[in-house]
Design a protein that fits this description.
Number of strands: 0
Distance between the termini: 29 Å
Strand content: under 5%
Largest sheet: none
Number of helices: 5
Structural class: mainly alpha
Shape: elongated
CATH architecture: Up-down Bundle
Radius of gyration: 20 Å
């Protein structure tokens, strides 16, 4: 009887420790991606403000390169983080984030910069949803 009790306690402790580690990794990943999304949004917002002030049709080459670099950084960061997240988060949720990142990249390529901002907001919302969904709480247990 004692042997089974020890095994059960060990298994429960292992589950809780694993969940804490997964939750911390998810929180780190969401915060890192949110930072990247904020940087992309800020650069695009700044560029749109410059465009509206100067009434320019084309983006300056320097600012356009900054936007491209930050979108590439966003995509690379996601690819690195996704590898670890894929072990314990539903792939459908991860694909939603990836879809939003590709939408951001697509709007950049067709030079629809004002459309990047709502896509970044959607991506941020999905990331926060993933974080809430994986949190160890009574609501998620039952």
């Amino acid at each position: 009887m004692k042997k089974e009790l020890v095994i059960c306690i060990f298994i429960i402790a292992l589950i809780i420790i694993t969940n804490i580690i997964a939750q911390n990794n998810t929180k780190y990943s969401v915060s890192k991606m949110s930072e990247r999304l904020d940087v992309v949004s800020q650069i695009v917002t700044d560029e749109l403000n410059i465009q509206s002030e100067n009434n320019k049709k084309n983006v300056e080459k320097l600012e356009k390169n900054n936007i491209k670099r930050e979108i590439d950084n966003l995509e690379n960061t996601w690819n690195e983080l996704q590898e670890k997240l894929a072990y314990y988060i539903e792939h459908d949720e991860l694909e939603k984030v990836e879809t939003q990142i590709y939408a951001i990249k697509g709007f950049y390529e067709i030079e629809q910069y004002e459309e990047i901002l709502p896509e970044a907001e959607k991506c941020s919302f999905i990331l926060k949803h993933i974080e809430e969904k994986t949190k160890l709480s009574v609501k998620n247990i039952f």
